[in-house]
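Session log. Operator J.P. requested a structure for one protein chain; no other inputs attached. Running the standard single-chain path with token output.
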Amino acid sequence: MSDDILFPPLGHPAASARETAGSKAAALSALSAAGFRVPAGFVVTEAALAAAEARHWGTELQAAASAAGPGPYAVRSSAAAEDLPGASFAGMYESYLNVALDGLAAAVERCFESAGAGRVRAYEASIGPGTGEGAAMAVLVQQMVDPVAAGVAFTANPLTGERNETVISAVQGLAEALVSGVETGEEWVVRGGRSIRVRGADGVLSAESSTAVATCARKVALHFGCPQDIEWALDRTGSVQILQARPMTALPDPVRWEPPGKGAWLRNFRLGEWLPEPVTPLFMDWVIPRMDEAYNKAVFASAGISVAMGHGQVNGWYYVSPPNPKALPHLLFGGEPRSLPYFFNSVVRPMVDPAGADRTVLRGLEHEWRTECLPSYRTLVDTSWDAAGTATLAELINTVQSVARKAGEYLWFFSATGGAAWKMELVLARFWRRHLAGALAGQATPETQEAIGYQTLLGGLAPALPAGVPHAVYSIDWYHRTAGEQRGGPAQAREGNAPRHAPTPSAAERRRAAEASCRALLKGRRLKRFDSLLGLAQHYALLREEQAKDFTLGWPLLRRCAAQIGARLHGHGIIKAPGDVYFLTFDALRLDAPPQHKNVDRRRRQWQSQRKLAAPLSLGKLPPLLGNMFDRIANSARSRDNLPAGALVGHPASPGRAQGRVRVVDGPEEFSRFLPGEILVAKATAPAWTPLFAAAAAVVTDGGNLAAHASLVAREYGIPAVVGTGNATQILHTGQLVTVDGNAGIVMTHED
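Structure written below.
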């Protein structure tokens, strides 16, 4: 038997036979033979080991290693049952790195012995009889690589199943800590040649090197004909070396974002603006339908017409479908005689004649909200709180439904009056762009240049900065704690984390100065028109934030009821813990229900998985009127038309420019990590996020529009904001240096 057959080198046919060389070695041997960069090495099969031990074991092993190259060496298991589509055996066997030439024999023997370890036997039992038991075992010896970076690449997204994305995790040096789970590493997603760093700030890889890793990994997948889980290393020359390739196991079907019905579906419209994550099952099955029912009833009481909107879930995320153009005849002529003028005055007129809309409909609705809706909401919450502690299950269910319906009624007034804020802002923006923007830009000094923008006129309106309230929420999904239940806030300032922009006057001072500058440029009817538009836009901007603050007045009571319902069901063995109640459906809220343990566990796992998805802001095709309206609002507010290439573009929500380090915040559990002077990047913000604005240099969100919480509160604090970017939380990463231009509505990234 010749030496090259006794210890066949990678690329040799004998090293590519999985039955004897094992899956790991066979895959790498096939790649080496195909021209991929694989560290030189050879395979020790069980038969070769027996034959060599009968002759000169150590001497022949060292000779084969020297032929592969100078040490040190990596000694790794390669079993025939490893790296299969249904059984990876990842981490089951032993590996030894940086092995010297004289230590090879002992390392190889220990690798063979690891095949009998208890964890291997337990894994074999877990995946079914016969999968790995008795399978051939081999050992792979390779030249060690001294990488600048190493990691893992999945040629399909393991979370979404998307086959067109390569997900890369990387660390500096060797990747043992990453593979073992000790480190999480830097993460990149590469799609269509575009690389996006989604986690980590160490600069392990550049966009170019991550693309090189992805390109090599996809070629490996193409070679084997299926998605691959690949270990790789980037050597000192910049070449990608393949250290392991195996089929991806348990790959889900690709996540599809199909609209749940005809027409357009929006994620951050109406209730969706308050739901920055997938919705838990009981809230979607019970609370939202009751709110929707009450909202429609309140609309009919005011307008004499039903304007039902479809709502549904896509991959767990809430979407709402506004009325499409085909529903317009019904909206105009399908209700009572008063419905047509009411529809015009409340929906259309604020965008063309704010004063007329205010006079005919909106001011009356505001009065009704202040004198009837809000007081009755408070009374319901106050009178129900104490009783919830001793209520029966039926009484608790009735309380939840009462609060949900009152919140739905409140939402109508909130949508009709506070929701008019962005429509009136659109008219003001149009006036500003036509009659003021050019002249103000010509008068600007370098110190005031960044403050140019009509949004300055809508900042610093409140007599005091927004104060937190216990019922403020991160999300209206009752699974999440209210502000009164949360602990922690922005961390204290640390050296080097102060805002990088120069100190500026308060938002109120800048607003007053801007008002004076505008009035100095206008005369006669234009001045009168300006004062009217400004007064109404300011009034409704303040009203919207006032209404937003108390929309969730009943949420502490809802959570108290949910906890009590959970305790009752837990006491009867229906759920394993009171907190499992959020993952039930309404039909299981009875004391004679069968145990729901499996259903709860399945729904919770699915929800946790769906939280990691990046949900599109819209599905289906937006109606021309609605789509153009959003575009017009953003473009009317934007201070420039020629946006720089590569900038992240959103809606210009609050004026000014600020440079700082990104802090991506997913939820209240991360509030305490936020440092003064950082750029707050979030999917969306709600009133519970307000304390972070006092410390932030600027705010950037995935969702929202010019009347969103982030927009209005950022203006009160006088900090720049860009909203409605769609995917800022995916594009930007914590620690990244960026400049936020709230006038242009863009975010620009910088290399350190």
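Operator note: Residues 85-91, 117-134, 491-503 have pLDDT under 50 and may be disordered.
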